[in-house]
Write a structure and sequence with these properties.
The chain is α+β, with helices and mostly antiparallel strands. Strands 1, 2, 3, 4, 5, 6, 9 and 10 form an eight-stranded antiparallel sheet that branches. A two-stranded antiparallel sheet has the order 7-8. A hairpin with a 2-residue loop joins strand 9 and strand 10. The protein is elongated, with a radius of gyration of 27 Å. The relative contact order is 0.14.
Length: 190
């Protein structure tokens, strides 16, 4: 019995935690995360610099006229037309936000709480369609309202998702009818 007591007394329990190593790993991981975040931020700013040739976004006119359609939902960003992964970040167009859209005879008023509002004159609207994705957001087929418009000689696709997805088809039809009517009117005026 004494030999068991001697063995028990001689054995020493191992250190449960090596605090210096654990703190070193945690600090290293935090520094790595901070570096990745900083690089992503710098890339975003660099993309904005490369897109600096895009002119300032127009504001809404003081008297836009009566609303044809209104929509509340989410703004998912803008890309170069036809290139759904080429996000445009200049002038805040890359910032996702809530959105209130109003379509009038004057154009499309995009009001974004916490982000830059903009206005697309009716003459600059090119197309509206339902699609499944835009940079950073992919949904089921027809889940996004994509509005193609021209600004500064560049075609831009802007993606919106309504709180009530069923109303997006009406938006596509109304915008495309407006574009057809506008181009027909301009063609007869020349």
């Amino acid at each position: 019995m004494t030999s068991l007591l001697q063995l028990a007394a001689e054995k020493e329990s191992a250190d449960v935690t090596d605090w210096a190593a654990r703190i070193g790993w945690v600090v290293g991981l935090l520094l790595f995360i901070a570096l990745v975040y900083w690089l992503m931020r710098e890339g975003w700013k660099w993309r904005g610099t490369l897109q600096g040739d895009l002119p300032e976004l127009p504001g809404a006119p003081s008297e836009p006229g009566p609303a044809r359609l209104e929509l509340s939902g989410r703004y998912h960003g803008s890309t170069s037309a036809g290139q759904w992964l080429d996000r445009i970040v200049a002038h805040g167009l890359g910032t996702r936000s809530r959105v209130e859209l109003t379509l009038t005879d004057a154009g499309l008023d995009v009001v974004r709480p916490g982000a830059t509002d903009f206005f697309v004159p009716a003459g600059q609207l090119r197309e509206a369609r339902l699609d499944k994705g835009i940079a950073g957001k992919v949904l089921a087929e027809g889940g996004l309202l994509i509005v193609t418009w021209e600004h500064g000689g560049k075609l831009i696709d802007s993606g919106f998702r309504s709180d009530h997805a069923a109303e997006q088809a009406e938006w596509v039809e109304t915008i495309n009818n407006m574009i057809t009517t506008t181009s027909t009117t301009e063609g007869t005026a020349r």
